[in-house]
Design brief:
CATH architecture of the largest domain: 3-Layer(aba) Sandwich
Order of helices and strands: EEEEEHEEHEHEHEHEEEHEEEEE
Bound molecules: FE2/S2 (inorganic) cluster
Shape: globular
CATH topology of the largest domain: Rossmann fold
Number of strands: 18
Radius of gyration: 20 Å
Mean pLDDT: 90
Distance between the termini: 25 Å
Number of helices: 6
Low-confidence stretches: none
Strand order of the largest sheet: 9-8-7-10-11
Length: 316
Amino acid sequence: MNMNLKVASKATVAQDIYQFELQHVDGAPLPAFTAGAHIPVLTPSGSMRSYSLCNDPEETHRYLIAVKREAAGRGGSISMIDGLHLGDTVAVGQPLNHFPLDPQAQKYVLIAGGIGITPLMAMAKTLYQWDKPFKLYYLTRDPESTAFLNQLKAEPFAQNLVCHHDAGLPGNNFDLWPVLEKSGSLAGLQLYCCGPAGLMSAVKDMTGHWPSSAVHFESFGVQQTSQVNDTPFTVNFSKSAHQVNVPAGTSILQMARSVGIAMPASCESGTCGSCKTRLLEGSADHRDHVLLPEDRAHWIMPCVSRALSDHLTLEA
Ligand code: FES
């Protein structure tokens, strides 16, 4: 962590969602970022979290992040909301971008679910400045839980926004298939999706006919990567000569850390690509959103993926 930034403002932007404005204490310019970037933040609970930057990347005097209180989360979001106040300082790392816009594309589709709107807000602002055609689909439960709704409706690109509330009813989902079915045949189109795992899986299924290089995912929400029928398995780490048992409900990444293996990781939700590790033996149950089909025999994302075989060997 290399910056101590002050909370210049803190405001509710939807039910259980707070926006934090972070600035240098002396108002000095902040390191530049590009749309889709996030910053690591040391939360008051002592755990690290990554938050997407949602302001215009042209701004150099502040970072804007939005934090949703995740009652079922690991405590980081609650400590941010309850423990970080106006005027406090917080340790923040340099902006990183695992979800960058392709400036060469001719047209863009942005799909946000819930708090996944944050990186796509910055993308929409950038695409508007680039004068690129795009559509932003923003899918939420209801207006009360929809962050930045009024702000988005007042943006100069508001006509590019399609906002849908499903009221939490499964049959009331916005039907993306008519959009994604036809769009897949358009050369020069890029899709960026950020939201809960269910939305990203649905989008992944509906873009199976797209070139994989045209579809991009990111999520920092609470991931439901555990499944009820998960079973334990063992992992050998070839370089460090450790062997661990990975029980249901625990990730390979967590077990690697428990024996002192320092694996790089950021999102811990299978979307950023930073924990990519070589798979030397065994059959993986891939649950990430980043590996290309041709990479899956030899690579694994240990933050979310598990094993189909009793045993895996990873190069770590
Ligand atoms: S930490 Fe981001 S994909 Fe594993």
